Known about the structure:
Elements: E1 2-6, H1 9-15, H2 18-24, E2 30-35, H3 41-49, E3 55-59, E4 67-68, H4 70-74, E5 81-84, H5 100-111, E6 116-120, H6 141-158, E7 162-164, H7 166-176, H8 200-214, H9 228-241
Parallel strand pairs: 1-2, 1-5, 5-6, 6-7
Antiparallel strand pairs: 2-3, 3-4
Helix pairs in contact: 2-8, 3-5, 7-9, 8-9
Amino acid sequence: MKVLSIGNSFSEDSHRWLHKLAVAEGINLETVNLYIGGCTLEMHFKNIEENNAYYDFQPNGEFGERKISITEALKLCEWDVITIQQMSGFSGLYETYEPYLSSVISTVKQICPKAKLYFHQTWAYEQGFDNGNFAFYDYNQAKMFDCIKETSEKAAKSIEADIIPTGTVIQALRETVAEFDYKNGGISLCRDGYHLSYDYGRFAAAAIWLRKITGKNIKTTNFEDFDSRILEKIIGVVNGTTIDN
């Protein structure tokens, strides 16, 4: 299975462990992330229109050494899965999506008509984060999550795509796993208030993606030097909520 993401740093977070986790699960999965930090749907649209080779080509969660355009990447092979997302701060603001989302997906469908489309639902920022884009949601994590969930469902429906519910599962982990109750002294799943932590945050995202794309339960608890007891809790939430969201 070959997966291409038209994304930014949030898809970079999600791809970091995706290939390696697939290998651990005995699944043949090759991934490529197209990376521009903070890239919006409007920027993706403009880069297609101008055929700009501005994207870092990131294979299997690694840092690539080449630049590429969206159109060139779409033509590289017969992709099985293609994902798209909005920039995190705008993810809950549907007025920032169109006409850019529809235009980008039109290009995707024209070049890769057999690929399955997924809309990547990103996650809400950490409590207490002071990023300016958080102001769109009154610096309220729950409000931001609700806006992202509603908007991503609308966006996915508009392009006839399924949803990778990363935001939903990350929020569930925050609310149901004591180790991630940041407000009460737990570990933050974000390393800087909005990007996922290098360990459990990125592992959770990889597990969410793999579970959603393949439909298979995740079993791996021996991964890097992470605490297997915490991984078991993450996997329990991922396996229990990913497919239906």
